[in-house]
Design a protein that fits this description.
By secondary structure, the chain is α/β, with parallel strands linked by helices. The protein is 53% helix and 12% strand. The radius of gyration is 28 Å and the shape is elongated.
Length: 451
């Protein structure tokens, strides 16, 4: 079985591609079912966030599994696999493990070190588990990845800035509103909250995790008055009560826009929530700018709205080109070291586990030989009593087990070392053992690039 990661992120694809690939919560179960229904995909986890869509999978054959996964992703994007290929990256085996651990640690995030990805990865894993889409390999990978992510945040200061996509976006909004585009963060506050938002009326559209984080960050920054709206009024009311905000009926969205200086929109809608016409009506006659942060993928804001005078739309694409701040080099280096150590530990476990079927096959072959010989003995010596036959069987089994003990223990030890798969292969060849074939590294072609 081969581990494989196929995906696209803010580094390889524009938001227009990411939003076509995005898997909404309502579509997640169906997507997982389609993946594991394929011939070569036996396990799958799908991670879909505002800046990445990735499939983590265990496949029986690399080429077959890659083709099936790319086909499903291309169908979501409404294009052919060849058209999508330039936006995709593929990692397998050790590189897949390393990429997964880097994602969990926040090293691959748009805002390096942000902790939100850890919860998103956990949710993706739980969703896959609930659909029975995970097995031994992905269970182990995901559990270890979550542990590595926790280590990164508890043992280093990579997230001491408290940044996330939300805080970074609100910092950009602050710089736009006060005209200080050259400095996106207030140096005196150590990135704990965005500058220039105090006293600014703000509206949050969406009451999910991203909306809640937006409202909490705005509250800490002193923005206000605060309003929140959501298609489900109950969730908006509960979130508003938690932060002293005003719950706004979704039907009154246009009026709420008119009174805001800043809007943070983060829904799970598959259609535009803020159309150009709605925004145009809201800003009619106003003489101050309106900054809209579109934190959703697919986008909540109709792209044409960015052409309206006085309206500044900051989406994931623009945010990716604006961000310049990151964790201290010493903290990032510490996380890189944690990841490297944990990757090697996982690969050691993986190499050891991969030899287990070969060892089991060897012991089964030995048992078959012993059973056949004992049957022949019973035919040649019918005069032996049951007790005598039992003694002979016990003795023969003990001899075989003692002969196999040292080589099987040693092959497990050797298999845990780099290049150790050759010892299991040698055993299979010497004893003509029938063990399912797994894809080798030299069978893997190149596709795209994780830039």
């Amino acid at each position: 079985m081969t581990l494989i990661v196929v995906g696209a992120s803010h580094r390889t694809a524009p938001v227009a591609v990411l939003e076509r690939l995005a898997v909404a919560p309502a579509d997640l179960s169906g997507t997982l079912d389609r993946l594991v229904a394929q011939q070569y995909v036996s396990e799958a986890v799908v991670l879909s966030t505002c800046n990445r869509v990735e499939v983590y999978a265990a496949v029986g054959a690399f080429h077959g599994g890659l083709s099936e996964i790319c086909g499903i992703l291309a169908a979501r994007a409404g294009c052919t696999p060849n058209e999508l290929a330039s936006h995709l990256y593929v990692h397998y085996d050790g590189a897949a493990v390393e990429h997964t651990f880097r994602v969990a640690a926040g090293l691959e995030s748009m805002v390096v070190g942000e902790a939100q990805i850890l919860g998103q990865l956990r949710d993706a894993y739980h969703a896959a588990t609930e659909r029975d889409a995970t097995g031994r390999l992905l269970h182990e990978l995901m559990q270890q990845a979550l542990r590595v992510g926790k280590r990164a945040h508890t043992e280093t200061g990579i997230d001491r800035a408290g940044q996330s996509v939300v805080t970074a976006a609100l910092a950009v909004a602050g710089s736009v509103l006060d005209g200080s585009h050259d400095c996106l963060f207030d140096a005196d506050c150590e990135h704990d909250h965005p500058a220039s938002l105090a006293g600014r009326p703000a509206l949050v559209v969406g009451a999910g995790a991203m909306g809640a984080l937006s409202l909490a960050t705005l509250s800490r920054a002193g923005a206000g008055p605060l309003s929140v709206t959501n298609r489900g009024a109950d969730r908006a009311e509960r979130l508003a009560a938690a932060y002293g905000a005003n719950p706004v009926p979704f039907d009154d969205l246009s009026a709420a826009l008119a009174s805001a200086d800043l809007v943070a929109s983060a829904t799970a809608s598959t259609e535009h929530v803020l159309s150009r016409d709605v925004i145009a009506r809201a800003i009619d006659g106003r003489d101050r700018p309106l900054v809209i942060l579109d934190l959703a993928v697919p986008r909540d804001v109709e792209p044409a709205a960015a052409d309206l005078p006085g309206v500044v739309v900051v989406d994931i694409d623009r945010l990716a080109h604006t961000l310049r701040s990151g964790p201290a080099a010493v903290d990032q280096a510490a996380v890189e070291e944690i990841v490297a150590t944990e990757v090697e530990a996982f690969l050691t476990w993986l190499r050891g586990s991969e030899v287990a079927p070969t060892v089991a096959a060897l012991r089964n072959r030995a048992d078959d030989v012993v059973t056949a010989e004992l049957r022949r003995l019973a035919q040649r010596r019918p005069d032996l009593s049951d007790e005598q036959r039992a003694d002979v069987a016990h003795t023969v089994h003990r001899v075989v087990q003692r002969l196999l003990h040292s080589p099987t223990v040693r092959v497990r030890q050797l298999a845990a070392e780099p290049g150790g798969d050759q010892y299991a292969a040698l055993l299979r060849e010497l004893f003509d053992l029938d063990v399912p074939h797994t894809a080798q590294a030299d069978e893997v072609p190149e596709i795209g690039g994780d830039r």
